[in-house]
Amino acid sequence: MTVKKIRAQFLKLLSSQYTQDEIGVHFEMLCEAYLNFTPAQVVLNLDEALSTEKEAQFLALLKELQENEPIQYIIGAVVFADLVLEVDERVLIPRPETEELVYWLLSAYDNEAPLHVLDIGTGSGCVAIALKKARPNWKVTAWDVDLDALATAKHNAKKNSVTINFEVVDVLDAQLPNTNWDIIVSNPPYVPESEKAHTTAHVLREPEHAIFVSESSPLIFYEHIINYAAKQLNTKGSIYLEGHAPLMKTLNLLLTQARFSDIVLRNDFRTNPRFIRAHFR
Q1: pLDDT value at position 260?
Q2: What is the enclosing helix (H) or strand (E) of 78?
């Protein structure tokens, strides 16, 4: 079977789950991972016949996609802020929106001062690793309550040659480390459980505890993070948060009540309110 015919199978059999453009991107990602083809080479080699082994491999990959396995888990990696991070079912897949949060933060600081930075709920380590890679002089600490996620994050940090202080900490605990920080950043769980019914099947293959929050307390992580930041941020320290669009105005209010200033709301590339930044005192 040729590359063109295999691609046609993908386009046909995945049409009920993805758009044609999404299927095309997934196919290109698989060709890059398993055939070493760039997107341009895929087009140039459509008439190339695959070996029996490669044909069987691509049909198996197609079956995984039909079973709603995320493409990033199939490949085992994702590119985030120009870094390659390994991902699997233990961690949330890093999103382009979170890249925007990282770039926004980096645009405000250079590498001169050895700032103390905390990433709360690090997951795969994407935010902490991207920050440390771009600002080697910073002292970056990353918290997570999930030991499996921390194992992945530590592996990704080593793979990308950065040193980060990873700690097992639950931000919902009453007693948190008495450490002062210049920057606190977090992308905590924020999607209300009521939206689970409308969430695509492949997203539901990701760790639900890293996505959804109780309908009765959708702001629980933000309340704890902001309270901690108000106690532990240095003067003129900053907090950067990613959040759920319908709740961003409420986050603004929480930050105001906690005596933060210079509060800025920012849209993501889809024009949804997604990020908020504030300075302390």
Answers
A1: 97
A2: strand 77-80
| Residue 206: CB atoms within 10 Å | 20
Same domain membership, residue 109 and residue 25: no
- pTM, to two decimals: 0.94
Is 148 in the same domain as 205? yes
Cα dihedral angle (236, 229, 120, 147), rounded to 10 degrees? 140
Residue 178 lies in a domain: yes
Domain containing residue 31: 3-67
2 DSSP 8-state letter: B
- Number of domains the chain contains: 2
Residue 101 structure tokens:
């949060």
Which residues pair with residue 117 across a beta bridge?
Answer: 140, 183
b/e code 183-193 from CB counts within 10 Å (16+ = b): bbbbbbbbbbe
pLDDT score for 152: 98
Answer whether 1's CB lies under 8 Å from 55's CB: yes
Query: Among residues of the chain, what percentage have pLDDT more than 90?
Result: 98
128 and 28 in a common domain: no
